[in-house]
Amino acid sequence: MIFGPTPLAEARGAVLAHTVRMTGKVLKKGTVLDEAAIAALQAGGHGSIIAARLEPGDVPEDEAADRLANALMGPLLARSRASTGRVNLMADAAGLLVVNPAAIDRINALDESLTIATLANYVPVAAKEMVATIKVIPFAVPGAVLQVAEAQARQAGQLGGPVLAVRPFRPLKVGLVLTELPGVKESVMEGAVEVTRGRVEALCGTLLPAERVRHETPAIADALNRLRRQGAQVLLIAGASAVVDRRDVGPAAIVRAGGAIDHFGMPVDPGNLICLGHIDDIPALVLPGCAKSPKLNGIDWVLQRIFAGLAVTARDVMGMGVGGLLKEIEVRPLPRAEAANAPAPAVAPRRGRQVAALVLAAGRSRRMAPLNKLLVTDDTGVPMVTRVVDNVLASRARPVVVVTGYERERVEEALTGRGVIFAHAEDYAEGLSASLKAGLAALPKEVEGVVICLGDMPLVAGPMIDRLLAAFDPEEGRAIVMPTFRGKQGNPMLWAREFLPEMMSITGDVGARHLVGKHADRVAEVEMADDAVLRDFDTTDALKKAPGFAGAVR
pTM of this prediction? Predict the structure, then answer.
């Protein structure tokens, strides 16, 4: 192809490179110039134009895009007509898009004139959704280049299946076993069923009535066999406690029911603790704790392939690591039928969990009377509550809410100029629960968790709080995070928003720690390097031993 300034005398059959506007007439970019077009240009005072002239063997852009599209067509794909060197490929039914990345890469690397862009491999698509676009970059492609591209596309299809295909979701029957342990709330059980039902129905499947049994291997195995007799084509186990080993209760039940374990764990987060097995030819999976959440996680990737009729091997799972960091990514609905109507995100979609911090600073310091321990200054003249709040502000927790009560004005004055929200506990004299509830009531609705800090623990530094935030993952079962030192439990503690209603019902001079025993399966402990998380200073003798406070109390 020859490109550049072209005298009008030589322009017949050339392709106009740029739109030309004249009085009463517009010749658009891409126009193939005929005698009438050339006459109009001459009448408009043009002696030459920028154009592309095809050489022998060149294939015009639309014909080239059309031929490459035909070579790439696979099952359940439809295509648009060629226009401006482009052909779009669409899904003909809801299903899973399967792409041969190596074949696409080879064609894209062949010559700059040909490009193919696709959705990600193994992504669910809706009927009529665009899955790929072919674009010819210049106005023509050398015929030899196009022939090689066509041959590569067809050869790839013959050797390893089509380069692009949509695998339709099959209407499978799914059996779910829910295991129970004492203290597990009914709402949690019901929620797990509804979330699973949503996943299954989104993939065109049907969820059989769930089996609820004790968290014991024999009971689970019996339930699996009952579901098989009911026609289950996929078996799922949602444990009351997360699976931690391929010999744990859930996987052992699959083996006891006559099956085998194929793989434990996956490089997808959330979703690490999944266990894949089978009983005869029926996939049997022990779900990770995050499967109780409707958010995208590793179980979605596995179920999508199963419903699309694809085998999921250990090698397949181990190959999911690139792109497997799903945590905190806003995603479109499955199977993305509503995606076209959704507004584009204004910022990058990845975000951290929003965890707030409460600093409880309302108490009367009875054990240190007549001093208010929160206002006792350290050896540099900084009040204790100021040190505590500065440490919290050095962490990623936001917003920071400070609960005041006793000597409210003095406490607020000590925190002048700091970016905190004050919440006053009018009934602070009733005890710790009153301060706690005042602070919780001041939290923004969008926070996903709250770390509760005590105003008399000035040694807890910002990085320690950040370690708690890093461990926080309600979908994986880490909904309550507490620090420890040499096995002893300390403060501050981080709580998921789901526990706020229970915390708001506490009365008396107690905090929320007693809820830990009730929700033991949701607790994660984070071991710290020193004992700062164990050290509060509520007496004069204790404060004398606090680093930096040696001269504070005489």
Answer: 0.68
